[in-house]
Design goal:
The protein has 9 helices and 12 strands. The chain is an alpha/beta fold.
Length: about 280
């Protein structure tokens, strides 16, 4: 069957192309310059020409802090465009896969968020992604995959930010220790999405690598795997004020993913090891 990927220049889309190619699937991947997801006519034409069985929307506004001053644009890309994709998917009877985020939650929980947990985003970015989730359900067949703390070789990410600080000679590294989630290596996410679609999954599914940790824990593992000999000092979120509020606890429960696929989430530590090897 044919898979159509939007936002093909992004980090997740790159790894999805590789994951699907390894399964000998036919993929049409369109970059932002090839398909403007806010253009209804362009979407309709692209989908009718491709006649995909699956549309995976990787196009997204991902500048979390900038969205606080640019919410209209974030809503257009992360929200309204998904409505257009849902209509196009219905026209060709395709499954629409929407990649979403842990930022749809407010972080007040004390145990992993299940798929039916109440949403209450704290930021403009989170609100825009929730709009996208709601729009995706207007497709007759939809799969919403929430994930968290992404890192991969095809885009900016936390691992590279830490490496840049090490290169600059920053010592100690001061890293937030009161935000808890699950880092996710994008090739692992790509495999999970492909597996979910091929299993016939619909509705909402959470996928994130295991185990949970804080950003401080994540940074310590990066330093350890690099054998950098740098001290990592835990600090509070209040010491690093940002325009957009982050959920303090955004651990996603992957129970449904495991039940549907029969596969446990991959290890982010293993993903980090592969990432560092590929970037060496």
């Amino acid at each position: 069957m044919t898979w159509l990927i939007t936002g093909a220049g992004g980090m997740v889309a790159h790894d999805l192309r590789e994951a699907l190619a390894s399964r000998d699937e036919k993929v049409i991947a369109l970059t932002k310059s090839e398909l403007d997801v806010t253009d209804a006519r362009a979407i309709d034409q692209a989908v009718r020409e491709a006649q995909p069985r699956v549309i995976i929307n990787c196009a997204a506004y991902t500048k979390v802090d900038a969205a606080e001053d640019d919410e209209r644009v974030a809503n257009a890309i992360n929200g309204s465009s998904v409505e257009l994709l849902a209509e196009a998917a219905n026209a060709v009877d395709a499954l629409l896969v929407q990649v979403s985020t842990d930022f749809v939650f407010d972080g007040s929980a004390h145990e992993p968020y299940e798929i039916n947990a109440p949403t209450a985003p704290l930021s403009a970015y989170g609100r825009s992604k929730l709009l996208g989730e709601q729009a995706a359900t207007h497709a007759r067949k939809s799969l919403i995959v929430r994930t968290s703390w992404l890192f991969g070789v095809h885009g900016p990410n936390f691992v590279e930010a830490i490496r840049n600080q090490i290169r600059k000679g920053t010592n100690p590294l001061r890293v937030v220790n009161d935000q808890r989630g699950r880092p996710t290596y994008t090739p692992h996410l790509a495999d999970a999405i492909a597996r979910l679609v091929l299993c016939g999954a619909t509705g909402i599914v959470h996928y994130a690598d295991a185990p949970e940790c804080t950003w401080f824990d994540f940074a310590r593992e990066i330093v350890a795997q690099l054998a950098a000999g740098i001290e990592v000092k835990p600090v509070s979120t209040d010491e690093f004020p940002r325009p957009a509020r982050r959920p303090a606890y955004s651990v996603l429960s992957t129970e449904r993913y495991e039940r549907v696929t029969g596969v446990a989430p991959a290890s982010w530590q293993d993903g980090l090891r592969e990432y560092l090897s590929r970037r060496a």
